[in-house]
Amino acid sequence: MHCPFCRHADSRVIDSRTSDDGLSIRRRRQCPQCGGRFSTIETASLNVIKRSGVIEPFSREKVMSGARKACQGRPVTEADLAVLAQAVEEAVRQTGSSQIDTNEIGLAILGPLRELDEVAYLRFASVYQAFDSLEDFEASIAQLRADHRAGHRVDAD
């Protein structure tokens, strides 16, 4: 790690702390050359493989944006979307893979979105589960109703 003050190529770690969400580590460092102190934040990289084959870093904001579109006009707050995006990132990271397909991210959004708002879930599912007809919507609604009658909600696959 280069010192941001004198550009010396080395630094010493003084303190390390895990972030509140457990997904990153904050390290306090000191340069042995100039004595300057600075902080770094380290996270494990997570890359997304898009349909076109392009690879880019995972973005919670993109998860929120997709869910926001499905939630348009629904009683869902930005805070709800932030919690959903964090849950999706945690689920994706738990797979242990450093690269994940965009379709898998879309599917990972379905469970938390279903718990948040069922109408938004149906909107989102129609894209990511490739609904082709009214029958696809009817089958999904029938599953939601069956889960309600059973007295519980089940995460989508």
From TrEMBL:
Zn-finger (unnamed) residues: 3-34
Q: Which PROSITE patterns match?
A: ATP_CONE
Domain of life (superkingdom)? Bacteria
What region holds the ATP-cone domain? 46-136
Keyword Thylakoid among record annotations: no
Q: Which free-text remark accompanies the cofactor?
A: Binds 1 zinc ion.
Give the family per the record: Belongs to the NrdR family.
**In this record, what's one Pfam family?**
ATP-cone
Role played: Negatively regulates transcription of bacterial ribonucleotide reductase nrd genes and operons by binding to NrdR-boxes.
The cofactor required is: Zn(2+)
State what protein this is by name: Transcriptional repressor NrdR
**What keywords sit in the KW lines?**
ATP-binding, DNA-binding, Metal-binding, Nucleotide-binding, Repressor, Transcription, Transcription regulation, Zinc, Zinc-finger
